[in-house]
Structures are given as C-alpha cells and as structure tokens.
Amino acid sequence: MRALGIAATGMMAQQTNVDVISNNIANANTTGFKSSRAAFQDLIYDSRTREGAVTAEQGTTRPTGVDVGLGVRTVGTVRLNTQGGLMPTDNQLDVSVEGRGYFTVNLPDGNQAYTRDGSFQLSPEGEIVTLQGYTVDPGLVVPENTVNLEINEQGIVSAYVGDDPVPVELGQLTLTTFINEAGLRPLGNNLMEATNASGDPLQAVPGDPGVGMIRQGFLENSNVNIIQQITDLISAQRAYEMNSKAIETADQMMSTTNQVK
Questions:
Q1: Which is nearest to 146 in space by CA: 175, 173, 171, 122?
Q2: In the chain, where are the structural domains located?
C-alpha cells in the first residue's frame, strides 16, 4: 500500500505552502515586498495498465489505462511582481517606483543588488544610502547646507544649497529591469540579486518605454492581499488535514489486514 507515502508527500507540500503564506503575511507591511506562492507538480506514475494496450485478438485497444500517481512535490515559489500601493511620507529622501524597475545598490563586497525599497537616508559623507548603509548607485553625494532635495520623475536629483535659489543638479537615479523578474534571488533586507534565470540587468532611465517612473515622497507598500492569504491558509490547512486523514485511513486498512486469520 503506497497511500502512506503518497499522503506524506501531500502533507510536506502543504507544509511548504503554509510556510510561504506565513512569510507573505509576516511581510504585509514590508516596503516594496512582493508576495509569493508555492507551485506544485505531481510525481511519476505507476502505470499498471497502459493506455492503448490491445485487449482482444480483433485488435481493440484499451481507451484508458490504470495509472496511480505517487504524490506531489514543490517545484518552486513564484514571486508575484504586481505593483504595490504608494504611501505618502512627506520625506524628501523617500522615493518609490511606479511601474517596472529596481534601484541598484552597491554592496560592500563589490557586487550589486536590487531593491524596490526607496526609504533612503544620508551617510555621514552625504551619500544617498539604504537603511543598511549601502550606497545607492550611481553614488550621489548631497552637499552640506542643502535645505531642500528634489527628485523628479526621471530620477534627476537636484539640491538647493543655502540661500541660492538655483538648484544644483547632483546626478540621476537609474532603474534596472530584468527579462524575468521572477528569477531574481531574494537576499533579505529587501534586496534581490541577479541570476541566470533572471537574465542580465538592463539599466534604463525612469520614464523610458517599459520602465517605471520615480515618485518622491512616496514609498511602495507590500502587494500582499491579506484576505487572499487568509483564504489560501485555510485551504492549505484543510488539504493538510485531508492528507492526514488519508494516512489514518491507510493505517486502519493495514491494521484490518493484519487481523485477518
């Protein structure tokens, strides 16, 4: 009897499903977070009778076979890169992306990572950095005595220094896009890294065709739909219980068989 093993694969798959849903709910208020869902595939089949097998001397064939599946497995967690809602903050260093694209972050080891979290700050040297202190590419430095900082929709950063009514242009924030955003690897700290699956990073100017725009004074909320997550959680719980019931039933059948004299 293979029911025990089959049901066990179902319970493990639903455990992974609950883990993914729990992570979504936990990050419901994380800036720029993108929810995920677990994806499953059925395992190989035990083909006890082949479809199309000859059933008589006259050449008739069996229209269906006897195929018993051996369970399920988790094949991936699919990230849903839909736009999150924009929340006003009135902070001139808070920026969000409306549309496609990621901010590029320079890591201490020389590599680059990518983020949708635009809650930036200034380093002691005046550089625009993330909350972890990582420099935001291309490494813009805000002058001392800056009284106001403006970032337009195309990412051009301008500073009003002292009493000078003419702003000083500091540079431009760019956005990076990927052919397959779902292929980015999450690193934690709201950072992602490129992989072979994501494709090479494509740097672009905000507002270009297929690229989002910069919104100063806003942060992007998580795209987690709490109601949907709770619904999915209940569904996963019921599926887990049904697999548990299948194990219990298989155990009772084996017990009955053992008692036959």
A1: 122
A2: 3-81+224-258, 86-220
